[in-house]
Fold these 2 entries.
Entry 1:
Amino acid sequence: MTTNDRRAEQRPVPGGSVEFDADVLVIGGGPAGTWAAVSAAERGARVVLADKGFCGTSGATAAAGTGVWYVDPDPALREAAMANREKLGGHLQDRRWMARVLDQTYQDGNRLAAWGYPYPVDDSGKSQRNSLQGPEYMRLMRKRTKQASVTILDHSTALELLVDDDGAVAGASGVRRQKHDRWTVRAKAVVIATGGCAFLSKTLGSNVLTGDGYLMAAEVGAEFSSMEFSNAYAISPAFGSVTKTLFYGWATFSYEDGSVVPGAASKGGRSAIARALLQGPVYARLDKADGNVQRDMRASQPNFFLPFDRTGIDPFSERFPVTLRLEGTVRGTGGLRIVDDSCATSVPGLYAAGDAATRELICGGFTGGGSHNAAWAMSSGTWAGRGAADYARQLGPARQRRLASAGTVAFRSRSNRPLEPAVLARAVQDEVYPYELNYFRHASRLDGALARLDAAWVDVSAADAASKDDLLRARESAAMLATSRWMYRSARARNESRGMHRRDDYPDQDDRQRHYVTSGGLDEVWTAVRPHADASYAEAAE
Amino acid sequence: MIEVIDAERCTSCDICVNVCPTNVFDKTDGIPVIARQSDCQTCFLCELYCPEDALYVAPHADTPCPTDVVALRETAALGSYRRAVGWTDQTRDLRGIDRSYLLFGH
Ligand SMILES: Cc1cc2nc3c(=O)[nH]c(=O)nc-3n(C[C@H](O)[C@H](O)[C@H](O)COP(=O)(O)OP(=O)(O)OC[C@H]3O[C@@H](n4cnc5c(N)ncnc54)[C@H](O)[C@@H]3O)c2cc1C
Ligand code: SF4
Ligand code: SF4
């Protein structure tokens, strides 16, 4: 592969904005976005990558670090890796996609080694590649993205997509929040890699993840899938942001009085923690970790210990209060529906990668503690970048397309009643944080929440355009609101419990619902059912 | 949340202003200011990028936790995260000691 020396062109425009012409625009600079940008550039495309924060520190991976579904290409190991999560995911995975993600992740993981990622070496001398330190990994990805001649725009939040007369996506525009001006990128294809939506819950590294890409994609008519699998909650010290859960596998959870919470565990017993938290405080102590394990923990996840070291708590011998923070679709599996192997969405010119896309193909209805998200981010990023570059090439030399802005909420002048972003964000949080609404779902409670959220949408769509200073926050809170409605509508459409989706009124898994729930729409939210690949094959064979 | 910019250590390089993903700092003619503390997501990344170990992020995510810089200097907290991940000259060997592969699957 040759390194591309073609850069996106900056067009001269009057002050107050910057404009670029590119083949591919990547929105979001986490692992999915940077892999997409690098692979598109390697295909010869001129690429711009715009990130809301700083490409290299922004997003869930940079702050948290991830285990990676990196499995040696030994058929028995690969088979075991695929089989062992199928039940957890509610049998919604697709074997063909799992196999391709394992292949691509293996290749990408090895490229990281070639690029200098300092993988550890075990006692037998083998390089171990199933874990990536977030800051180290994303610093390297920023460097490789720059070396691939990608133009990086930091602190450049995308606010809306641009479309041509045929409705194909043709770029985006947004704000440069440190320069207080606007940016526009005209591109032949766009990759949405804006991550998931964690509803500003302060789960580690995720306050930049407000579902912006979903909202922008929905405004051009894109579809979602598996949005009911959006109620991931992660354990953290009650006062802290570090929602890293692996080490709670060595914890004992107790009530205020010191008695053990029955059934509580990080894996397979998190709902018991949620139920206990509904009654009062819950404490943890990592008392099952022996000296060796403690040492390995410190070496592996230094950030896990920051909340303890900085408050003088010894988590191995002392109890500390814990909470569950909502991670929404960040460690959920719902997102933009992928329609082919190149990670195209249902809208021409629009691709999706990472948490912005559905991970149902490899995770089904459950993720967490399995390293699939990280594998998906690099694999889908690699494919979406290539897919977008190929689409751009096939579109031919830049035609003079007339472009229109697709943004709706917070852009339109309406009733002169202002949209209040902080108030709206709080209102959405009130509907999606409570365990009794979102962790443990029930038709009547979902209906109540949906009625309030739908009313909020009517209100917001009638609100006046946000002021320049409020626009970013207004769009973020509108995106959270839109996300919550696809979530709960989809949750309402799945009358069973499967994967992470739990219905108190339908506690069992129902074999007849082994299908995907798709969704979309803004003013009118819709859901539909799409058969699982196995069912379609079975039908074709009949 | 971010609590401290140690004026004695800071060289006004503005790296923290650039790297903070939630745009918490503002540039000034001198050392940056914590302009939007409530936007801080307690990710600790500014500490990793500050070459002078002049920043301190308190681990409390939801409430400010005023921290006395003089007392802080007496502890080993300033720069402790950067040292732990191996991003200082003295600790660079720590970059490759991830032992997660021994802990997964527990
Ligand atoms: C605490 C924690 C631990 C985790 N541990 C694991 C693990 O062990 N294994 C695993 O597989 N997965 C894990 N995950 C999940 C994993 O981090 C994500 O799946 C992964 O980061 C997804 O990559 P991404 O590039 O899609 O999104 P992100 O890394 O979240 O990046 C999204 C980027 O988009 C940018 N962005 C957002 N909106 C806009 C906008 N409007 N305009 C421009 N840019 C925008 C953001 O600034 C950000 O840089 C963990 C997540 C958390 C929170
Ligand atoms: S990165 Fe550190 S030295 Fe540089 S301006 Fe920020 S606080 Fe000061
Ligand atoms: S902890 Fe993270 S969000 Fe807070 S100031 Fe530092 S870099 Fe910014």
Entry 2:
Amino acid sequence: MIRVASLAALLALWQIGAVFSDPRRLPGPLAVFETILAEAASGALFSNLAITLARVAASFALAMSLGTAIGYLMGRNRLADRLLDPWLVALLNLPALVVIVLAYVWAGLTEIAAISAVALNKLPNAVVVIREGARALDPQLQEMAEAFRFPPGARMRHLVLPQLAPYLAAATRSGLSLVWKVVLVVELLGRSNGVGFEINMAFQLFDMKLLLAYALPFVALMLGVETLLVQPLERYVARWRRGVA
Amino acid sequence: MSPAGGAASLNVAIAHKDHLRASGEPLRALEDLRLTLPAGQAGAVVGPSGCGKTTLLRLIAGLDRDYVGHIALPAHGRLGMVFQEPRLLPWRSVADNIAIAAPEASSPEIAALLDDLALTEHATHFPGELSLGLARRAALARALAVKPDLLLLDEPLVSLDAALARGLRDKIAALIDEKRITTLIVTHDLAEAIALADRVFLLSPRPARIVATLDIPAPRARLTKASGLALETQAREALLRSQ
Ligand SMILES: Nc1ncnc2c1ncn2[C@@H]1O[C@H](COP(=O)(O)OP(=O)(O)OP(=O)(O)O)[C@@H](O)[C@H]1O
Ligand SMILES: [Mg+2]
């Protein structure tokens, strides 16, 4: 309810702003909505959204699975941690743009280069978060599992993953928003379709209606993923905690 | 191996065991500790707080291999353990906690065990919803569910109120008589040890060694109050002599 009210307030503010400014700089909500409908009718909106969403999904999955494996290893193995830590720090501090340009230069303007560049931007963050989780695993429960001879699969499922779940959720949340922002940049620089490409076109034509007509549905889409997928999943894995609504 | 099970007794001969302090100095927890527990019997290890009882159990359980000495476990060596804290998986229900630790146990077996320990109505509860006494019982059910050849109990009755402790003590005594599992119980309460065990091992303060071994001629249900008290006096005298 509060979320709806705050969204309505944002819309109102936008409308007021639009009234007082040049429509070419800030078109009103209605004009943008009409553009969205037009783009939707031609099918371009959906195909571009779908392509961008697929890139987000692929690079997110790649970054999370690699990041979880590496982070777990670094959290549990001191040698691995010391070996990989300098790489991690370097990657953490490498600007997204540098990674993207290097990927395009080395691997060409290809889909693989685009997805790897995005994944590489998300990877260090996932590693850091999961490493923290792996370090915090309860040694008393580890010992219990050892005494009862838990097989490796059961250890993963019943001991490790439930303890990593809050860290995985945190990495997912910060990850999704980071990934989709970087995907747009990657599309702008080296792809010929997707939301980022369309926004670039709109920018070149100085068509603010078109720009917003692509940006807003995508934000709404990611908001939907967050509320309909990420949050329910978080609640489900935390159902054993008392006092969680 | 003789069918009488003589070869399957628990044999512990530890020359010494040192912990490493945070400062890096070694801290001797056990020294020259020897004990033998025949198969199918219950032994109780009694000693003052901090003397090294948990350390001893962890060595027997194979959770810590950094010691000098030798430990021989009963045949097969399937281990059931109740830690000093319940150590249940907080994100799994009581029934799941048991089923995960004992994948071979059938669900009727688990149900019977839960019933034995008056846990049936808590089977679907998460450990966070249990009182400490219930959690201890759940941990005991988990240890029994694996059908252990060796059962290790670390202070299973500590910090329960007197009535609850007596109830659980009687339950453990009945289970020992019924299932005849080789059992080692750690406690600092002499009366509790005498009420549960066939054989009581009295430990010195740290570094722990055995100062006296007490055989209970008529253990558990057959133990009269008078002979229990007499044994307790005998044990206290042995402890005094050792000091
Ligand atoms: N991991 C460890 N590192 C360093 N010292 C330890 C460690 N574990 C135990 N100790 C020390 O070894 C001694 C014996 O500890 P232990 O836990 O075996 O005692 P306990 O007899 O079980 O005591 P309590 O009755 O209080 O449970 C204690 O002085 C303790 O401080
Ligand atoms: Mg202890």
